[in-house]
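Escalated from tier 1: FE2/S2 (inorganic) cluster holo job.
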Amino acid sequence: MDDSPQNCCDTSVDIDAMNADFSKSDDAEYMQTTIRASDIKVNSYVAVSVSNRELLMYNINGRYRASDAKCSHMKLSLEGGRIMGNCIACPHHGAHFNLDTGDAESPPAIKSIKVYEVQVHDNMLWVSI
Ligand code: FES
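Tier 2 regenerated the structure:
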C-alpha cells in the first residue's frame, strides 16, 4: 500500500487500512451515541449531540467517523456540506476538511476541526470524545 498521506478528495479509500488504524487507539474512551450504524447512508452523515458537543457522524464508504459540527472559518454549521472523498466541504464558503486528520485542506479555513474515531458495537455508534 502507498504510504503517502490520503488526499482529501481521494475517493479510492482503502477501508481495510483505515480500519486497521483504529486499533492504534484502543485505549481511547468511547461514548455511546443514539445513532445506529444503519441510520447513516453510505457517504452521508447525521447530526448528533454527545456530551453537550454538536457533532456530525459520517459513513464514508462503510467507515464511520465524527467531527465537530462547526466550521473553523466562521463557526458556521458544516451541516449541508458535501462529502468529497474523505473530506467534508463547508456549505458556506467551500473549505474542505479532512475527516481523518481534521486538517483544513482548502481555503478560506486555515484552522483544523476536531475529528473523532468511531466504533460500532451491536449496530450502535460510539465516539471517542
Ligand atoms: S464558514 Fe466554512 S468556509 Fe466559511
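The chain is about 5% helix and 35% strand.
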